[in-house]
Amino acid sequence: MLRLEKRPQPSAFWTYATPVVAVILTMVLGGILFWFLGKPPVTAIKTIFWDPLFGDFAFYYRPELLKKAAPLILIAIGLSFGFRAGIWNIGAEGQYIMGAIFGASVALAFYPMEARWLIFPLMIAAGIAGGVIWAMIPALLRVYFKTNEILVSLMLVYVADVLIKAFSVGLLRNPDGNGFPGSRNLKQYPSAANLDLWTDTGIHWGVVTAVFAVVVAYVFFARHQFGFNVRLAGQSPRAAAFAGVNPNRLVLVCMALSGGLAGVAGMFEVAGPSGQILGSFPAFYGFTAIIVAFLGRLHPVGILLAGLLMALTYIGGDAAQSAMNLPSAAIQMFQGMLLFSLLSVDVLTNYRIRLTTAKVA
Amino acid sequence: MERETLLDLRGLTKAYPGVIANSEVSFTIGKGEVHALLGENGAGKSTLVKTIYGLVKPDSGTMTLNGAPYAPAEPRAARAAGVAMVFQHFSLFDALNVAENIALGMENPPPLRDLAQRIREVSETYGLPLDPARIVGDLSAGERQRVEIIRCLLQDPKLLIMDEPTSVLTPQEVQILFETLRKLSSEGTSILYISHKLEEIRALCEHATILRLGKNVGTCDPRATSARDMAEMMVGTVLHTPSRDTAAPGDVVLSLQNLTAPAPHEFGTALKGITVEVRKGEVLGIGGVAGNGQDELVAALSGEMKTGDGMVTLKGQSVGRLGPNDRRALGLLAAPEERMGHAAAPDMSLTENALLTGVVRKHLSKNGFLQWGKARTFAEEIIKAFDVRTPGPGNAARSLSGGNLQKFVIGREILQDPDVLIVNQPTWGVDASAAAAIRQALLDLAAKGAAVICISQDLDELMEISDRFAALNEGRLSPPRPAKGLTVNDIGLMLGGAHDMEVAHVEA
């Protein structure tokens, strides 16, 4: 009989090995899934994981990879603070959308003035503000009325979703757009555009910010009192109170951090890869970032790698969809498998499996 | 007097990964005998009684009960054979009444009305007053224990195992319990009594088996052996009794004026008008049965719970509205009762746990950035000074035994040179030699001029180290009295306050 036995210390080996095992497990399970769908499993896995990086069209896919990974990493880094402290902001998607609306609104308010030194920084500030405001709603409700931040933040996603659709056909609609929905394309407005800093590398300001966020988060978790308080509050709330951590302040700060980073990610997206406010604004980064945060074990470096991996499954998944006629639901299932594999393999960090001889009762 | 043998244990051995809990333990319990099982924490007492009660299967060794082989596969089999056990922690449902709780533990419960009648009979026969219709949530700890005992007695046991039964009782309640146990014994029921309170064992038991590191290291007649000799058998070394040079108490450092606070949560206790002054170099002992406001008082002093202006004054400054770190900066430190998850974070390393409270006074951070090197040095200092057994400061707090972690937690506060230190249950679950070391450290701290408030349920401990003694009862603190010259009876009356008095008179 198999039995789980708690380890006295978390295993250092498995802390690092579980994500790798989880990825391998996902490839196996995903392969089986594709096989049942009547597709060659090895080719499908290769199309998803190998071709975008080293295939014939890698020159096209690699910049795309960075553009997809950057918002995921930015949002996941913000979420990791709250998640480590036991504060569950599930509504990063909404904060991301609000950041995009705020950022785009600032740019469109100045249009067609040419002053990048003023407009672009203002857009960044507005993006952060949009995310923070949206995150403060569940945060303040939790602090003052003890509501559940999971529910409130999640519901606000749907509010944000309705807002962006309304703005794209209302207030922010392009006056020169012949009545089509959607705002002006910010990519064609030099003062506001978030383009590649070096042509065709995919490195825009959002990518730079994401890398910066990873470094800062790493330093905070490892070296700063705030990171320590966050970890402490997540592990033992009573010990945190004893150490003088104010739980309400922690909720506000962590929600503001995750909201702000999600908001700025939304702003970089709307000013760059996406270009305009539209009902079909590229969504789900906010939700996928939750997977990224956990896949990266809430560790900044882990999140960096997990974000890149997740972006790869997006891009590879798209490629597999078009090249092999895989249904998009299969790709989403595949991404879900990744999280489930991780969560199940995760047990090994704190537990070991023992074989016990069956006992006669 | 030679008794007929009821239970005979032969060579019981049980090993867990990395530790041998019992090694070749043999002894016998006679019919109607009150047999004490003595030993420090971790000596293997619990494993042994769990073996007898069918919760643990021994690796080797045999038991015979009434001459027949006895190897219970589960507690149900043990109960059927006539072995009953009262656990240290009760398993009762607060929302149900006494009779319902007892019915839940029975194989074939009779109708509740009949059961209530039987409960009344048993409780009257054995002098354990208990109303079967009362809701368990309203009962005191002593009354809850009676529920457990009556639950056992209804099975007509041949052997009753009691695991640390007096840890939650007032002295008067202990007397009632002892009367009951003596009566049971005179009727031929054997009792296996587990405790580390030596005076109790001397008052109650005829035989004692002493375990050390899982081995039976000797037997004695407690009535003819001094408490000190028994303690030394338990520990295996000569015991060091804490000593101190009594200095004249200095100025008042901490003063509580009418400290009043509502219960922080549903099962908490409100603090009601606590007024007391503590002076430099003084140890104030606060006794009381658990759940009478100890946790709340510690929280109000440590700063986890804020209180009104002027209620808590430290060195002339009102600190009631300050948080824990501000109070630490002013020299007011605390060590709460619960080590895992309150005083220390179980999954964090000892270095991180050293920083947990030490960051302010030990200057372990600069502009908010933590200095792990200094924190590690501080952790090593604690480990060395308080003999904490661990491979090193990088180990998680949860890997330490309870006693070792307690030494670490107390040491962490003492090494920060507090002006006032509040400790709650400083030696709970700590073995005798470590407990002596902790008490000595508290006394040394007081001798250096700090004020120490020691909250404990262990009255022997409080009498040993306190200059003054006060009792906490339902959130009220009795006026402190000099500890010297207080009798057990005085203390019992102080502890009992009002609500236990009725019970105490029934049999006293």
Architecture overview:
The complex is a heterodimer of chains A (361) and B (508). With 361 residues, chain A is an all-alpha fold. Helices cover 71% and strands 3% of the residues of chain A. Chain A contains 15 helices and two strands. In chain A, strands 1-2 form a two-stranded antiparallel sheet. Chain A starts with a strand and ends in a 6-residue tail after the last strand. The mean pLDDT of chain A is 90. Chain B is α/β, with parallel strands linked by helices. Chain B has two domains: 5-235, P-loop containing nucleotide triphosphate hydrolases (Rossmann fold, 3-Layer(aba) Sandwich), CATH 3.40.50.300; 252-507, Rossmann fold. Chain B has 17 helices and 23 strands. In chain B, the strands form five sheets. In chain B, strands 13, 16, 19, 20, 21, 22 and 23 form a seven-stranded mixed β-sheet that branches. The chains are: A mainly alpha (361), B alpha/beta (508). The interface between A and B is medium-sized, with 21 and 35 residues.
Number of domains of chain B: 2
Distance between the termini of chain A: 14 Å
Order of helices and strands of chain A: EHHHHHHHHHHHHHHHE
Q: How many strands, what sense, and barrel or not for the largest sheet of chain A?
A: 2 strands, antiparallel
* CATH C-level category of the largest domain in chain B: Alpha Beta
Question: In what range is the share of β-strand residues of chain A?
Answer: under 5%
Helical proportion of chain A? over 70%
The CATH class of the domain at 72-317 in chain A, by name, is Mainly Alpha
Biggest sheet of chain B, in brief? 7 strands, mixed
Q: Uncertain spans of chain A, ≥5 residues at pLDDT below 50?
A: none
Silhouette of chain A: globular
Largest interface comes to: A-B, 21 and 35 residues
Strand order of the largest sheet of chain A: 1-2
**What is the CA-atom radius of gyration of chain B, in angstroms?**
24 Å
Structural Rg of chain A: 22 Å
